[in-house]
# Entry
Amino acid sequence: MPNTHALLRRLLPFSCLLAFSPMIARADITSDSNEAEDDTIKKNQLTEKVKLEGYVRSMFEAENFKDGETFHEARLEVKTKRRRGIRANVELDFRTKNDDIQVNEALLDKKWDSGMRMKIGYDLKRFGLEYEESRLERPTIERSYIYRRLELFNYTGRETVLVVEKEGSNAEFHDWSVTASFSEAQNFSLVGNWQHDFDNGVRYGLWVQGGTHKIQDDVIAVGSIANSIWKRDSQKIFQAELIYGMDPNQTEYESVFDDDERVYFAGLHTLYGHYIFNDGEESLMGQGGLTVVAHDQRKTQYNSLGGFLGVRYDLDTLRIALNAELIGTNSPIDLKKRTYDESTLRLEALFAF
Amino acid sequence: MLSKISLLFALSLPFLSSCKGLRFNEEDSYGLRLVTLDITPEEYGLLNGQLLSKRPAQVEIRVAGEFKVFCSANYAGRSSLDAYRKSYDLNFCEQKYNKRSSYRLSAQFIDKTLARSLIGYEIFKKMGLEVPKAELATAYINRKYQGVYLFMETVDNEFYKSHQISTRELYKAQYGNASFRTDWASRLSEAFDYDGRGEDNFTYLQEIYKLLYNEPQPEVFAQKLDSFFDTESFLSYMAVALSMNHWDGFDNNYYLAFDTDKKKLITTPWDLDRIWEKPNEYTPDNLLIRNEVLARLLKVESYHKNFVQKVAQINAEYPPEKLVELVKTYEAQAKKAYSEDPILSRYQATAYVELEENIVIWDAKVKEYLSRNPL
# Structure
């Protein structure tokens, strides 16, 4: 009986998703009865007002390749139709890992004819290529290791944001953007981004962030810069990123307990993916990458070296991917346990709708 | 086609063969309770990004390798929120550890020995008060050693339930305003945090205020107060607080819970990381005037005698030699974990010595108080 209860609780998020499913029903549903026609009209009216997107995915994750668990998620994104250039976006995650629903995004989005756009609300603070892209656009299951450091430093993450951006010729990316954001850890930050397409299909993005960060008994100024260069075509993908800046956490430690020196980090991440076959609808890609994060070089502590191997199969909106990440890090503090590994094996099956 | 099926099968293998194993061994615990938290960087970012609102992050919690739950954790405390070394409230969702669905992983921001609470709660318990279970623990977050912490119960309705006490109203003294001075009579929510059923209900505290300021006769005040306030429990609490210079516990850091069997408010101690701190700054006499209810009760001879008896009993049962011995016991217990603590290790040479010295200094002041107040 408790197992049945637990199973029902796990299924609850998906039942919520199913409850929404009539909304995404196609408008061409027909029926002989008047009642069904009324329903169809209502559905048409609803789909005219809102657009629903999202995905369901199952994940297997084994940290250190020896402790594995499986969990499932569904994401639902609701976008209203623009009126006077304004629309609202809400993005929800339904997760079985802890049977909860999380609000990822709640935004008002205003677009002008000139290509200018403004967004305000709760959203990701987008810093660097992998934060600019959505999960569906990203070639790998999770963001690369360097971005996980940025999340710990609060250079990225979900915050209250005000974004002004100029749309680019490429629908996927903008030309430039300025984001002001607020969080309780960082107080305030400003992120500027500029992107440029080169003739050979290579795109470059520069993100510059400055802000304040609360530390024990003080507030410090922090900053970080991300340079990303990438190319994606039907044969291969390539991206290289160089990210550097101040580590607010270790700087706080130094400020409170040591010599009050600022601590900086720098990370380089590369990813190469080659399509074994790709006919537009169905593809198979092999991936490989390297990550190096250097940190507080004076003491050679908290430095990481990582390798990445992956394979990804796509069939229309179905994606199955296997990623293996090997990461070794030496300790941020001078202890006996100077090294530890943060390696992970991930397998994902994702279906987008 | 066959090759694609083989590929799908190969990719699915890990789903079918998930293995469970604990990553930590005995050595990692340094002989203490091992508490490990695993937080994804994204959730960690959210935890830090919403520091002040104490938003819970999704966390996998393991205790001593025997208890594992995926639930949530949030930063705990008030003044320690700003500290580099933070405390965490661990929530176990529907699972229970020691009959509790939540526990505190406390950094004891002020107390660099982490022994103060352990000794303090032992003395409160000896004097008949309910105290949170607390023990030394080694903490890891995402496999990084965080150092020595206290792993302890929090005081809430579940605490009393697990201690077989049926309660209704629960008030937490806060912000150093719970002195029962007139300043806070109309701002009770700034002096006490209400954790009872439904809307804030400060009726019992308002009754205490009414008695304090409308009843000039100390004897009548005490008699009326005793009808809904467990003065015995309160005096025991205050006697222990005085005995160990718990200066932050007279108008702060205590709980009043309405025991539905006794039909009285009982007192429970909390947050002892400042006991025996600043012994040269305080005296027993200036502590006794920090709480108006205590000051009024001590004007009644029988209550004063009872209080002094309790102080004398504590002083006899816990002489400085015994207290120093207890400090040394906890120091030895935590020694290995402490020496590798990224922060506390730098205080190892001084923290315990300072506590021992403070105990001796304060004991002299308590003895002097007892000599002026003979039984």
Observations:
- DSSP finds 13 helices and eleven strands in chain B.
- Residues 7-22 of chain B have pLDDT under 50 and may be disordered.
